[in-house]
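# step 3/5: fold
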Amino acid sequence: MANILISPGKYVQGAGEMKKLGTYASKYGKKALVLITESGYKRIGETVSGSFEGTDVEAVYEYFNRECCKTEIHRLVEIMNQTGCDMVIGIGGGKILDTAKAVAYYKEVPVLICPTIASTDAPCSALAVIYTDDGVFEEYLFFPSNPNLVLMDTEIIAKSPVRLTISGMGDALATYFEARACQASGAISCAGGQTTSAAIALAKLCFDTLMEEGVKAKLALEAGACTPAVEKIIEANTLLSGIGFESAGLAGAHAIHNGLTVLEECHHMYHGEKVAFGTITQLVLENISAGELEDIIDWCIELGLPVTLKELGVTEVTDEKIMAVATAACAENDTLHNMPFAVTPETVAAAIKAADAYGRYFLGES
């Protein structure tokens, strides 16, 4: 089995880069479907449309319908057919970006990804997480290539709600631990092969950056400042985690996130917030040392990431709910089976219960 690493064609990060979007886009086509939310357009639409002035690229704007689902993807493919657009530009959060990638895949055209938040590692990847119309995880859709361009305007991202960047740190927290598990089990990564040393190194750098810069970045963002720590966290959340998870592999943390989507109480929580709890649960499954576990839980608490089911919105915890999450997480096609040991719904349910108990303990709750 080959070792494989994949990455976006180009990654650009810096303050004010959205003003150059039209110039970047001119390298890929003449007419772009620009997918954005209505609120996103109100915030930065002037900057986006201004970037196309003086270029030969025509922009066709379409508002996103809030869910990365087959219904929305098919709707946008039809708009591409009607307008003759020859590229897709996704501007916004993870679900918009995944939808843009899916539409570009079905139309076989370039895709440019422009996150306005740093809340997930989705931007750089060659996959989309597909949900049902009601927001329940359905499947991963894998693409033959990564986005042609990922553009991170740190000036815009630094002005987004701090909770979103913290959620991105929760998502990125899983990268190294899942990569390590996949390396131990010899699992096939999202890239279609086994992990490279480069991917493991990037995943470890991602983890080290989170531990060193995470709290500093949180405090800086809360003060309205875009500091070097913020820049490093944006890169860790997006590029390091993106290449790390995709070329090294997913394991327990993301499968447990997917399991949590079956609970309606958790639907209001962000992806990375659920992944953070999934990471703690994976570490419980692995039975890591008490000191290591305490360090991770304390880091999550300091950032405000959820460490209990109650913080995820599950106010009434029952054995039935926990088993429903564990059973969904152990689905045959999910990544929990990339762990280097056998898992069952029963062992996962026990780990979820224990993770919740540890979180309550370190929060000082009964």
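# step 4/5: annotate
Strands lie at 11-14, 31-36, 58-63, 87-92, 111-115, 127-131, 137-142, 149-153.
# step 5/5: archive (pending)
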